[in-house]
């Protein structure tokens, strides 16, 4: 039992008084008619988030937006689109697949074209 109390005491969260406070600069949420919506948030620590969207044809939500966070003092922006094709982020920090190392043979391209018909 003593070990249990020691583990709980050790695992307790840090005091909130020790945390840096963050001031909200903007925090707007709009729920419009016909399923439209938008959000706009910014804090004085450089974190920001904006999005807008509307209800999709199949009942899902179509959204586009951006967010920025800070890493080692540098702002890291990311833009995105989310729709029936999934979440599509865009940022200079995201990995990019390497170029295909060999030329694609003509017969392979013909097979792909045939399969698309």
Helix content: 10-25%
Structural class assignment: alpha+beta
Estimated radius of gyration: 24 Å
State the separation between the terminal residues, measured CA to CA.
Answer: 70 Å
Discrete helix count? 2
Beta-strand percent range: 35-45%
Poorly predicted regions are: none
Order of helices and strands: HEEEEEEH
Spatially, the strands of the biggest sheet line up as 1-2-3-4-5-6
How would you sum up the major sheet? 6 strands, antiparallel
The overall average pLDDT, rounded, is: 85
Total number of beta strands: 6
What's the domain count? 1
- Judging from the principal axes of the Cα atoms, what is the shape? extended
What does this structure look like?
The protein has 117 residues and is α+β, with helices and mostly antiparallel strands. The protein has one domain. The chain contains 2 helices and 6 strands. The chain has a 6-stranded antiparallel sheet with strand order 1-2-3-4-5-6, with no helix packed on it. Strand 2 and strand 3 (48-55) form a beta hairpin. The longest helix is centred in the last third of the chain and has 11 residues, at 106-116.
What structural keywords apply?
single chain, 117 residues, alpha+beta, 6 strands, 42% strand
Write the layout of secondary structure elements.
Layout (H helix, E strand, L loop, with lengths): L1 H10 L12 E8 L5 E7 L4 E8 L5 E11 L2 E10 L2 E5 L15 H11 L1
Antiparallel strand pairs: 1-2, 2-3, 3-4, 4-5, 5-6
InterPro entries: Insect_cuticle
Keywords: Cuticle
GO molecular function, one term: structural constituent of cuticle
What would you say about this model in short?
By secondary structure, the chain is of the alpha+beta class.
């Amino acid at each position: 039992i003593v070990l249990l109390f020691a583990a709980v005491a050790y695992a307790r969260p840090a005091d909130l008084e020790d945390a840096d406070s963050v001031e909200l600069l903007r925090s707007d949420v709009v729920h419009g008619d016909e399923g439209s919506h938008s959000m706009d948030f910014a804090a004085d620590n450089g974190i920001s988030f904006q999005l807008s969207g509307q209800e999709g044809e199949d009942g899902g939500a179509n959204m586009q937006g951006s967010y920025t966070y800070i890493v080692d003092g540098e702002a890291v922006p990311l833009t995105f689109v989310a729709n029936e094709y999934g979440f599509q982020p865009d940022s200079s920090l995201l990995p990019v697949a390497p170029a295909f190392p060999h030329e694609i043979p003509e017969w392979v391209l013909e097979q792909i074209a045939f399969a698309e018909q």
